[in-house]
Amino acid sequence: MRGWWQEITGLVLPVDCAGCGRPRTELCERCRCRLGGAATARRVRPSPEPSGLPPVWAAGTYEDEVRAVLLAHKERGALGLAAPLGAALAGAVLAAVLSGAGVRPVLLVPVPSARRTVAQRGHDPTARIARAAARELRRRGLPARTVPALRQRRPVADQSGLTAARRLANLAGAVAAAPGQAALLALAPVVLVDDLMTTGASLTVSAQAVAVAGGQVAGAAVVAAPRDA
């Protein structure tokens, strides 16, 4: 219900650009371009780089307008931003796929969010962006399918404020393939997707979970990563 109400509200009430605040547009063209895409996607590596982290590609840089847009979608429920964020993510997926010698078709597997967090927000930001990215990839001729195959199987502490090592320890053993999903993960190479990469801990444990389930991770793609990654 909350998600439905947020979408209707966005249609009938005046909004300002989520990135720069320009009036009467949910996302201005300048901020849309700042999100990036295939042309701007870059290979990113956190420091320190966790062992087992797959190659990660980011469409944009997590700062200024890009940061504001991601937070508006994730924390303030600006659901209309899923489409442009998904388009940016699709560009990063294309970079990841092309770096892997043209893997196709591709399964987009979102990094799982905690159930309580999804309930508090009223939506699953990563899954929503992943679905938008898959639609954009299909529009561009790349067979793509979103498979929410992973889940958190135990509670984890809030990751904010934790060091890279503590994030890995916090997530160790917490992510696994959902029941009945192992067969799907074996159908095609997997690209893990998320809205943001900071330390790489979530992508690392997600890659491990896919491998345990018998899937092959071709790479990972995110909307944004820090400039120094």
Keywords:
single chain, 9 helices, alpha/beta, globular, two-stranded antiparallel sheet
Describe, in short, the structure shown:
This protein is an alpha/beta fold and 229 residues long. It is built from 9 helices and 8 strands.
Helical fraction: 40-55%
Order of neighbouring strands in the sheet with most strands? 1-2-8-7-3-4
Number of helices: 9
**What is the percentage of strand-forming residues?**
15-25%
| Uncertain runs | 1-13
Number of strands: 8
InterPro entries: ComF/GntX_DNA_util-trans (IPR051910), PRTase-like (IPR029057)
Protein name: ComF family protein
Question: Would you spell out the secondary-structure blueprint of this structure?
Answer:
Blueprint lengths: L1 H11 L16 H6 L7 E3 L11 E6 L2 H12 L6 H18 L6 E5 L4 H7 L3 H15 L4 E3 L3 E3 L11 H8 L3 E3 L4 H4 L4 E7 L4 H12 L4 E9 L4
Parallel strand pairs: 2-8, 3-4, 3-7, 7-8
Antiparallel strand pairs: 1-2, 5-6
Helix pairs in contact: 4-6, 7-9
Question: Would you write up a description of this structure?
Answer:
This is ComF family protein. It comes from Actinacidiphila polyblastidii. There is one protein chain. This protein is of the alpha/beta class. The protein has one domain. Helix content is 41%, strand content 17%. The strands form two sheets. Strands 1-2-8-7-3-4 form a six-stranded mixed beta sheet. A two-stranded antiparallel ribbon has the order 5-6. Strand 7, helix 9 and strand 8 form a beta-alpha-beta unit.
